Every structure is written in structure tokens, then in C-alpha cells.
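Troubleshooting entry. Yesterday's outputs looked truncated, so today I'm pasting the complete records for two proteins to confirm everything comes through intact. If either block looks cut off, that's the bug. Protein one:
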Amino acid sequence: MSAHPLQFAAAPFDAIAEHYDDTFTTSKIGQAQRASVWKELKKIFHPGDRVLELGCGTGVDACFLAQRGVRVIACDASWQMIARAQHRIDGLRKTPSTPVSLHALRIEEIASLKETGPFDGVFSNFGALNCVADLRPLAARLATMLRPGGNALFCLMGPCCAWEMAWYTGRGEVKKAFRRLRRGGANARLAGEATIQVYYPRVRSLARVFSPEFRLKSVTGIGVSVPPSYAESWAAQFPRWFDFCVRADSVLGRYPGIRVLADHVLLRFEREQL
């Protein structure tokens, strides 16, 4: 794990690092949505690949890839998240796996890892890129770090989550129901006084931002019928309905028009050939 000055500075997600695995990773909803992302990861990244992960959180995805023989260089702005990721990675030493290199680093500072490339792919899960105000500089930097033909797999929170609109409208919280549609994004409270500005770009906008260096190859909805994590109480109360939603999600997430109504949208870009 690399030392970095950022490790001494507080980051917004430090506030939820301690309980993140309890509230999302091990939740029924968290497991269902992550399983859908992992299906795509298994298709795209293979043993021996070198993959850069942006916003690795507590290291769940990095460990999944490492256990499949993928070499992961993972970063996160939260030193508390990195510490928990390191603890999880240390547990892998008991089983065969490929080492993971961790870096306490903001996504906007990713150019500092350029010398560790080139990479076969880049990956970011569950909205890390939603916290970046301007993705165009990131696209340009990643283009210099990925091999031609390399894959970029990004899972972002979409701007039109049908579940969220219905969930909060039914509770009379109309502002929350449509917060993702606000220009300039929304300010999200994480825990205590910790907040962060979150942006919800549309798929077409993202395709333009990552062009011409990257070409959008596929779009998959993650959480069309499976609700966002704050509906965990519903998932626990109605397990049969939830199981049905999980099965339906694998189908609905592929349909144009419907797939963009998901909690998250998984985009696969391909680095253009030089």
C-alpha cells in the first residue's frame, strides 16, 4: 500500500467507512446489485490482466478480481476505506490470489499512477465517478494509461431511478424523489456533518465526455427492479418479492429505455485503437 499525503486528510467517505460493509456490502440489495456487476467483470477481465480500480471502497471488488488472477491497482480518496480494504486483502493471503496494490488517492489525481501502467482495463463501481464534477479530464488521462482496445467498465448512479421516484413520492418527499434530475447534481449527506456533491450524468452525455478516446460498447441497468439500498427493510419484509425482482433485473437491465431507469447504470467503453 502506497503512502500518500492524502492519508492524513479527512475525506467525506471516511464518515461511513466503518459501517459501509454492514449497511451495503452484506445487505441483500448490495449483494444482488454487486452480483450483477460481477457477471460483467468476469466477462471483461481475465487472469493476467492489469486493471486500475477507481474508488475501491473497502476492497470487495478488488478481492473478487484478485481471486480470479487479475492484477489490481486500486485507489480511493478515503484513507479509512483503504485501511478496511487492506484488512480484507490481508485475508486473501490464506487463499491463492493475485496481490492487490492500494493507493490513497483522489480520482482527480489518477495521473500520478501513470508510471504503473499501461493497464489492460479500468473499473469503477457504485457511483465513485458520480462524485467527480468534470469527467472530461479523467477521460483524457485514462486514455494515456490504457492499452488500445482496453476496456473501461463504469458503474454510475443514473439520473432517472424509477424505484427512487416511486419510493420517495409515496412518502411525500417529492424533492428527494426527483433529486437526481437537478442541474448541478445534489448535495448528499453521508453521516454526521460529512456531505458530498453528487452528479448524475446521462448515458449520452457520458458517451460524449469519453469520446473520441473511448467508444461506448454496452449499457446495462443495475437495479431496475432491485431497489436502492435504502429499501433494505422492504427487501427483508418481502423476501419472495425481492427474489422475483432479482431474477427480473437480469432481463430488464438489458432492455433499451428500461435499463436507464435503474439505480445504477453499468457502461462498458473500449479504448480506441491508435
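Protein two, checking that the full record survives here as well:
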Amino acid sequence: METAIPVGEQPVAAAIQEAAEVVDQVSAYGSLITNSLYLIIIGMIVVFLLHKLTSKFLYPHIKKPRLMRVVFGTLYVLILVVTMLMVLNKIGIDTTVISKVALMTVLAGAVIVFFLIPFLPRLPFLIGQMIEVNGVFGTVESISYAHTTIRTFDGAMVFVPNPVILASKIINYHNLPERRIALNLIVNLDADIEEVRTLLLKIMNGDERVVEEPAAPLVRATTASANGLELTALCWVKNDDFLNTQSDLWIRVVTAFNNDGRVTMSRPKQEIYIAESKVDKVG
């Protein structure tokens, strides 16, 4: 015999019964929810790791990196869509039509995004490229929606806000196959200028990393003053060899000038004039 519930307690009993039904439904689909979360998390981690590896090793060598970005973005979306379709199918909803529409929508969206990317504002560099911006010179470590991280050559990590980057002059050295080295030095006017020029050309031509294209090494006189004659030694090297070659050439130039008595570099000097003053003697 069922016990009658007082009229005042009926709303409370109904709420408790509804809560119990919700708990039963959650319990019934608990494993489905857990498996779906596992699938989403594992899939996102796998795609994230693949994206990181691709960004580090392949992006600097890919001519159209935006294709890779669209592919990985599409994979992220597909993981969510496929997981939702699996959940709907498990709970008894026919996903035959929905799955086709969803997949076609994702693929169509990827194609549209791929063709729209060139018209969207973006930073003119990629991860792994060597750039100089706002006085910071180094390699791009990461790019987020808020800032760009640049690793300088002394190991420092510099975080530059993206609005600052977009408002600054940016030099991207990655897209240049060759880069020019300019050695600016002042030679004493008493030195044999032709010997200096010959020595500089010999040093540059003697380095196997110096290339003949787009131009052969040359030496130009740029300015003459009381301090000496300013010469600029110019040569081209591969972009990857720039820093090491520039350092080695400077060391060889200074060493050669110190060891050759016919050529001398001008040294900074300061002339001091002492004005004689007459002091009236009181006799």
C-alpha cells in the first residue's frame, strides 16, 4: 500500500525525483562522456605536438606555410566534430545526414580560410626565422595572439607586444639567400691606401664562405677627414654564415693591420691646446 504524500511536500518530492532521474541518466552515459573527453584531450595533444614539431622543423623550409596552419586548424575542428557525432550516435540519434553536412562544412570552411589568410593582417615572419624589430635582433621562438617571443643571440627571451611589432620597422633576414657584410674602418692617411685595399680584398677572397654572387668582394672609399680615410669592405655570404663570417673577417683584418707595418688603422686621438695667460705681477 503506497503512502500518501502530503500536499505541501509534493513539490519537494517532485524535485527530488527529477534530480534522481538526471543522476540516473548521467550515470548511464558516464562512460560515454568520459570516453569522449579522453578522445578530445588525446586528439588535441597529438595534433598540438605534431603542430609544434612542424613549426620548429618544417615551417622555415615550406614555401606556403599557411597551408600547414590551415591543415592543423582543420584537424582541431575535426576532432571536436567527430567526437560530437560519435556521442550523438551512441545516444541513438541518426547522424547520417548530420555527419555529411558537418564534415562538408568544416572542409569548406578550411578552403575559405586558406584563401582569406593572405588578405588578413599578419606578422611578416614565422617561427624559427631571424628578424630584427624594435631594436631586438634574434630568432622567433613563438607567436601568440598578444606577443611574439624572440630569442636573442645571448640567450635572452624578449617578449615584444604584437601591436608594437606592427608599428615598427621589421627586417626579416630569413627570406634572403645571401647577406652582405660591410666592414667599415678608418685608415691612417700616412698608410699605403692601395696596400690596404689589396690586403682587404685578399682577406675576403681567402674565406671560402664568401660568394661571388650577387657581387664579388670590393673595397670603397666613403669619406676622408682629418682622422683618416674611411674604407668600406663589402662581400656577400650565405645567410646562415653571416654572423660567424663577419666575426672571423673582423679578427683577420685587425690581426693583419697589426702585423703589417705598411698599413695602419687610424686611432682615436684628441688634441689639447694650452693657452698661455699673462698674469700681471704686483711689484
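Both blocks look complete. Sanity check on protein two: The domain at 178-259 is CATH 3.30.70.100 (Alpha-Beta Plaits).
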